[in-house]
Every structure is written in C-alpha cells, then in structure tokens.
Amino acid sequence: TTFQDGGEEVEDGAVYNVTLKKVQIQQAANKGARWLGGEGDQLPPEHTVRQYETSKIRAIKAGTLEKLVENLLTAFGDADFSYISIFLATYRAFASPRAVLELLLDRFGNLEASSHGEVANLNCLESEMVLRVEIASVLRAWLDQCSEDFREPPDYMCLLKLLDYLKNNMPNSDMESRVQNLLKQFQNQEVEAVDGFCSTSSSDLVDGEELEISNPEEFSSFQDHVVAEQLTYMDVMLFRRVVPYHCLGSIWSQRDKKENKNLAPTVRATISQFNAVTKCVISTILGTRELKIQQRAKIIEKWIHIAHECRILKNFSSLRAIISALQSNSIYRLKTTWMCVSKDILLMYEELSEIFSDHDNYLTSRELLMKEATSKFANLDSSEKENQKKSQKRLQLQKNKGVMQGTVPYLGTFLTDLIMLDTALQDYVEGGLINFEKRRREFEVIAQIKLLQSSCNSYCLIPDQKFIQWFRRQRHLTEEESYKFSREAEAAADTNILSPKSQKSMVKRISTLFLGTDVFTPLKEQPPKSSPVGGSSGESTDSASVSSCEFNHSETEDACVTPISSPEDPLKKGYDSDKGSISSDKGSGSSKGSDSSKGSISDPGSGSDSGSIPTRDLGLVPSSAPKVLPVYNQQSGGSCIIRVSMDGLHASVYKSILITNQDRIPDVTQRALLKHNLEPDAVEDYELVQVISEDKELVFPRDANVFYGMNSHVNFDFILRKKA
C-alpha cells in the first residue's frame, strides 16, 4: 500500500485534505508464465501482472460548524475513520453540545422537514434510511465516548431533546432505552460540587476531627508499600474520573475567570491531590520542630522509599509530587540533614529524580511514560546493584499477585502539551473557518489520556481507611511556615561536627545529586551570591532566590524558591507555586512559563496559596507540538521569560513572567501587579525598568514593546517601581 498527497479540495464552507491510497488487489502470472503452468505468488516480479486500486481519502481540514457536523455523517464514506472520535473529543473548544445536537437532529435528522435536494447533497447518503443509520451511529458513539456532555442539571435539555428525537424516529430502540436510563442515572445522582471530586478535602473529616501536624511515630507506623498503594489508589480514582476535554488548552485556560470557578472540576481535583501529597511530605519532615537531625533524615529516607514504591506501581503522579517536595527549598536547604541520609538511598533518589530530568525536552520521562503505558508491570533498571536487587524483589512480589498494573501519569504533562498546542495553532483560518487540523493535533494528546485511563482499570487496590484518614487530617504548612521551620532546624544543627574538608566533600556530593553531573554556568547571568547547598547556615542560605513559573498562557504564577535549578532555566522545576498550577490564561495568547521551584500542579483559581511545592516540569509534548519552550535570559521564538521584583524588596524575591513580541508596557505591568497581589488597575501608578547594572537602569516609554525594547545582552531582571 502506498499513499500520495492529492492536494486540497475546497467546497463552500469547507476545505479538505486529499490523500490517494494505492492498494494492490491482485497478482497473477503473465501469459508466458501461465503457459508454463506457474502461479503468480511463486514467480519473480518480471513474470507477473499486478492490478492496483486507487482510492481517495478526504479529511476535512477546516470548515464551518455546520460542515463539521455534516462531516460526521459522511466521514466514513470519505474513509476518514477517526473523524467522529476526534470531533467528539475536541468540539467543546468551539461549540456547545446543544449547538451540535440541534444541527445534527434538526437540520440533518428531521427527515420529514428535509427537502429531497438537501438530503441528496450529502455525500454517500442515498436514502433516508441510510441517513437514519448514520445519525444513529454518531449518536451511539457520542453516548459511548462522551456521555458526560449530556450532564446538564437540573433541566437536562440536550438529553430530553435526544430522547424526543428517538421516540419519533427510532421508537422502542435500544438507544431509546439507553438514553432513558442515562437520564434516570443523572437525575438520581447528586450534583457534585468541586470539592466532591477531591479525595483529600478537609470537608471529608469526621465531625469533631481537626487538622493536625503529623506525628512522626504515627507516620513511621505505615509501611512504605502501604503508603504508596494508598496514594496510588487515590490518584487512580481521580485520574479515571478526569473528563478529557477538560484538559483542552482553550477550556483549562478559562478557569481563572470568576464565572468559571466550577470549570473542569475533575482536573482541579487531580491537581489538589498532587499538592496535598507534596505538602504532606513537607509537613512530615518539618512539622515536628523537636526532631533530631537523624530522625528527620530517617523521614526523608522513608519518603524516598515510598517514591520508589510508587515507581514500581507506575504511579508517576505521586512519584513526582514526592520528588518535588524533596526538591523544595525548605527541604533541599537542610544540608546537615541530607548528610545523614545513607549513600544507597541518595543514589536511589538521584535515579528517581532523573526520571523528570529536563534534558532534551524531558525525553527520559516522555519515553518512559509511553513505554510503561502499555506494559503489564514497571520496567525497572538501576545502576546501583543493591537498589536493583530490592527493585526486582518488590517487582516480583507484584507479579506473583497475578494482577496487571495500570499507569498513572503526571497530568501536568498533558495540560502543558494542550496549552502549548492551543497557543501555537490558530482557532480559525482564512474565511473564518474552524481550524480542524488543530483539533486533530490536540486529539493525539487526548488519546494518550484515554489510553492511560483505560490502563488504570487494571489496578486492584483496596483502600486503607486508617491511612486515608491520617492523610486527610494533616495540616499543611504554608510556604512561610515551612521555610521558617527549615531555618530553625538548620540553625539548631551543629554544623561544626564536620571538618571543612568533609563538609566541602559532602556539599559537592549533594550538589551533584541535585544538579546532575553536567553542571554548567549560565552565559548571561552571574553565579548566585550564595548557594543553598554550599552556603553556611543562616543568612546566606536564607537569601535563596525566589521565583515562580506557571505554565499559564500569558505569564508565570506566584512566588516560589528556586535553589535547585540553574538561574538560566526557570522552566526546569515545575508548573507552579503557591497557587501553583499547570494552567493557562488565554488572555494574551502566549504560553505561561513553568516554575523552577514550585512543582505543584495546583489551581490558581482555587485560592490555595499556602505553599505549593517546587518540582521539575514534565511536559509530554507530542511530536507535532513546539519543541522549544521559552526560557529566562534567552529570546527565542518570539517569547522569553523575565523576572520582575518590587522596588524596595530584595532582588531575589521576584515573579517570573512570560512575554511575547506583542506585549507592551501596560500589559506586562498589569500582569506583574497581579503576580505581586497588587491592584491591577493601578498600572498608571507604576513604571517598569530593566536592571542593566548596579548603577544603570533602562526605563521604558509608556507604550513601548518590552520584547524588542529590552536589553537582551544582560539579565532579564526588571523592577516594578511606583512613580514619584
């Protein structure tokens, strides 16, 4: 079979891509070979005659909504077999269920009202019976794949309209009874609020229970594999309930608007769970201030073991949440505590951290996720023999149970991809036609989500109410509390027990662990004045830089500490900070950056600004998505990331904001004010300046283009200053 590009076909209201498919349908012996009695499949090519059939495949590239709905009925005849699935998975980005249903039923399904000419114009439809069959096929696929589209309490207008159509055109059919059952199911189910999706909500506590700081002894009583299994159980329950279209960039990016506070609740729930895990890790390590260094080190070791168990269970969500918490500034800076962590466990931690390495656009995590998605069990490989033995032993125990495992991904992977696609590709093309090629690209990501959701059905986990109640009772430390407790813990440690030589050796070891072996010096930025790892306890470590990067459409979000990533690359660590989310804000049409420190995928709209945790960003961008993400100190692809601090505050406290070559001073100033929790309407009262050196600043005119006006040969550091 060979394929050949057949160009484009343009119709009124639609543009099609045409592909010619050439298929061999027969191979026979030629006249001379037949005279000798040979058979076609036993003869060399020169003695055979081959017959080919060429068919035309039409795939709609762009069209009006009416044409796209019409194509649902003709796609099968055009050999575009995936069209219905793609349309149903992505149409919410440009139309409502009611609009699609009305077109499908009123225009094409109303057989009595339709003129004969109208029906005749539809490709491949020769009769009303064929039309009825095609509509039934589309409706059946809609109910199979996206039944949630019809959940519209309390009226259920679309479902009632569909039921009325079926009673008139397909009475007593299986589909009619199915729709009736679905309507009863929706009516009987209580309308779920946003918190109803979150298994870690404090509202789930029994009356009389209060949030409490973790008791180290109680936490230590849970076995490592039990904790990992219970975290996986909660992650699986939430991930399976994610509605794929909620992840579309055009949907997710609208969640911050006041009227959309209940938008995409299934995604918000998964984000809340991720943040709850990161905060639980920090609270167990820092919450009890009386702990000795060795005790705190044991808790860190326990969480590394739990992360390893999550890896065996192929739970990349909680695995990343734990790694993110351990890489947060408040935990990372406990250098004396890390010195007490055993070498083998540090190596295990290093290997787990490498899964989310940002090298080559997170190639390791992308390949691993796709490899694990369809495998029965985890594919473990360790360079450390002792860790390899332990891993294989635990894996063998899993295999002996005889139950396949699913794969729980880090959802931020897909949210980032879809946001990038939504930013990079236009919604409409010339003539105001809906760009359906964009939806095909988005479906590549949506299909991966659906595949992984299907794999999660393989898990066979039983909830442990004792652990779940303990997990829900935990009081999470705020960012300020965790950093304060971290300073106190480090100050209390006797750093003099180590000689300068051994201390230097340990600092090098820890630095290698976090930064990797290939540590480089940024070209455009001076090395930090103090290293959170190598600096002495006290002020030097407390001055660790504070940043934020949220993969939101137009800018980065929130303040968070970035001790681990190099200054040049703020996209290394993760999505968010205090409000931290993998999110997008479609306002400016550019992708939001990712934070080097807050690794929580949380939701800025939820108002939970109490210390989401740093992490590295794991984006699983499909092959068709943009390969280069905007970074700090580098202009590429018409965008870059700048750091904006407030005048009068320490320069290390800043907000990372993504700008494009379309952004002017008022836009950037307004976003900076929002980031710093100031009134965005006060744009006229502030000026934005770029720091050139200690005694030089670049002041921008009021309507200047920031991208082209900035000095790209110095650090992209800006100050937001109130006008005199």
TrEMBL record:
Compositional bias ranges of the Basic and acidic residues kind: 569-579
Extent of Polar residues compositional bias: 541-551
Bias type Low complexity, positions: 531-540, 580-613
GO cellular component terms, A-Z: plasma membrane
PROSITE patterns: RA (PS50200), RASGEF (PS00720), RASGEF_CAT (PS50009), RASGEF_NTER (PS50212)
Region (Disordered): 521-619
UniProt GO molecular function: guanyl-nucleotide exchange factor activity
The keyword Plastid belongs to this UniProt entry's keyword annotation: no
Domain Ras-GEF stretches: 223-492
Domain Ras-associating: 638-724
Pfam families: RA, RasGEF, RasGEF_N
UniProtKB keywords: Guanine-nucleotide releasing factor
Every N-terminal Ras-GEF domain range: 56-187
Gene3D superfamilies: Phosphatidylinositol 3-kinase Catalytic Subunit, Chain A, domain 1, Ras guanine-nucleotide exchange factors catalytic domain, Son of sevenless (SoS) protein Chain: S domain 1
GO biological process assignments: Ras protein signal transduction
This protein's name: RGL1 protein
Originating gene: Rgl1
